[in-house]
Design goal:
heterodimer; A: about 110 residues; mainly beta; six-stranded mixed sheet; five-stranded antiparallel sheet; globular; B: about 120 residues; seven-stranded mixed sheet
Chain lengths: ~110, ~120
């Protein structure tokens, strides 16, 4: 069956360091992968999308990589700040699946002073 | 109002009650979604409406009944719910099309539902 795995344990890092979050998937051939941020009591907010034929995408301090051989995406936040503390969700779309997204459970990131 | 709005933000109901959740999107999108988010579990897609026609229901129990009267409004009618239905219910919208570069979904703030 199709499965998406994200680090289930919270990730604590020091301010200024680079945070790296992992999203692994099995039995998928996604057309693209998305990353969302979710704050407590709020809906997810879209951050980045990367397509199956792209290796890397950047947006300001954010970087996403997509390795379809390893079936893995890495999400990096450079020069992290306490305001980056949130839960980060990866979501995959299946080719031909339209806008149907399948989400991972998310990884909670805490950036400490 | 901008983006995606949901009402009510919080709802407490008994198992015999009937209530409805409302979602409205002000983005001109043509697809809307209902998701359920329970603690420690991934977002579960419940229903998808594209151009006001339901295209996906993912085997959701019949005690959840969606309604999409137009492309801007989406309802989730609830009746005889169970305590395990307590969760955060999220609405989202997106723009579908063959040549779009992005298929991001825009989420509302959610309705926190508690079933007693």
């Amino acid at each position: 069956s199709q499965k998406i795995e994200q680090n289930s344990e919270a990730l604590n890092i020091q301010e200024g360091k680079t945070a790296t979050l992992t999203c692994n998937y099995t039995n998928y051939s996604p057309a693209y992968l998305q990353w969302y941020r979710q704050d407590p009591g709020r809906g997810p907010v879209f951050l980045l999308l990367i397509r199956e034929n792209e290796k890397e995408k950047r947006k300001e301090r954010l970087k996403v990589t997509f390795d379809t051989t390893l079936k893995q995406s890495l999400f990096h936040i450079t020069a992290s700040q306490p305001a980056d503390s949130a839960t980060y969700l990866c979501a995959l779309s299946l080719e031909g699946g339209g806008n149907k997204l399948t989400f991972g459970t998310g990884t909670q990131l805490k950036v400490e002073l | 109002e901008t983006g995606v709005t949901q009402t009510p933000r919080h709802l407490v109901m008994g198992m015999t009650n009937k209530k409805s959740l409302k979602c409205e999107q002000h983005l001109g999108h043509n697809a809307m979604y209902w998701y359920k988010q329970s603690a420690k579990k991934p977002l579960e897609l419940m229903f998808v409406y594209s151009l006001e026609e339901r295209v996906e229901n993912n085997s959701v129990p019949s005690r959840f009944s969606p309604e999409c009267p137009n492309s801007s409004h989406l309802f989730l009618h609830l009746h005889t719910l169970q305590p395990e239905d307590s969760a955060l219910y999220l609405c989202a919208s997106s723009q579908e099309g063959w040549n779009l570069l992005y298929n991001e979904q825009f989420f509302g703030p959610g309705t926190r539902l508690t079933v007693l």
